[in-house]
Amino acid sequence: MGSPEYIKIVEAIKSKITSEEIKPGDAIQSENLLCDEFNVSRMTVRKGLAVLVNEGYIYSIPGKGNYVCEPNLDSYTLHFDEMMASDKKGEEIRLIEVNVVKPSYEVGFNLEIPENKHVIVVKRVFLSDGQVKAYDVKYIPYYRGIPIVEKEIRYATFPEMVAKKNSIFAMTKKLKIKAISAKDEISQILDVMEGDAVLVVEQKLLDEKDHPIGWGSMYFAGDDSGLEAVASFD
């Protein structure tokens, strides 16, 4: 499976920034020029730009354009790519459930919603050569009229899942990384013994008012889980 088109845009612009072809404060190409260069739609370009904003490479000024950020040498940023995009053959993302359900206590608590409020649950597995490497579960508050398009959700990042109601540029993401003992559904899907250690990356998306708009976890099995995290200067 090749990388999605918007990831190619992300990597191309990152390369220009890290090689100093474009420097802090410089404007990057307009959306129209990026559409022409990569032969993609404006929506695809905006998805790529949103990733770069979220990772701290660029910032956006409404009505003017996008600019390269100044590096912040006083802090480290952990970048986590939940899609594990790769050019390797034999890798696949499989959607196993999209549903509208009532939230459990844990889901309601993390999303700060009442128990009678419905949520969209999205479950996916990430496979390599037919073996499940990760199990992904996301919860999003359901609002009447929200389209649930399974084809789009399959390859969507978490921020993209809620972007129809919220601006990706205004979102923040909080991560928690921990280890748990596998049991029930997790052990079955990851094909591990109950009690085996499983790595969990818990994500919470917040809007501009710091209110939760999405919550979920990704579970990784075994030593070769495919999880890669890089701490780097912003």
Task: Looking at this protein, list some descriptive labels.
single chain, 234 residues, alpha+beta, Arc Repressor Mutant, subunit A, Chorismate lyase, 2 domains, six-stranded antiparallel sheet, two-stranded antiparallel ribbon, 7 helices, disordered C terminus
Low-confidence region ranges: 229-234
**Sheet with the most strands?**
6 strands, antiparallel
Q: Distance between the terminal alpha carbons, to the nearest Å? A: 30 Å
Structural class: alpha+beta
Strand order of the largest sheet: 4-5-6-9-8-7
Give me the strand/helix succession. HHHEEEEHEEHHEHEEE
CATH topology tier name of the largest domain: Chorismate lyase
> What is the rounded Rg?
18 Å
Mean pLDDT across all residues, rounded?
82
Report the total helices: 7
Q: What fraction of the residues are assigned to beta strands by DSSP?
A: 25-35%
Quaternary class: single chain
Number of strands: 10
User: How many distinct domains?
Assistant: 2
Relative helix content: 25-40%
CATH architecture of the largest domain: 3-Layer(aba) Sandwich
User: What is the 3D shape?
Assistant: globular
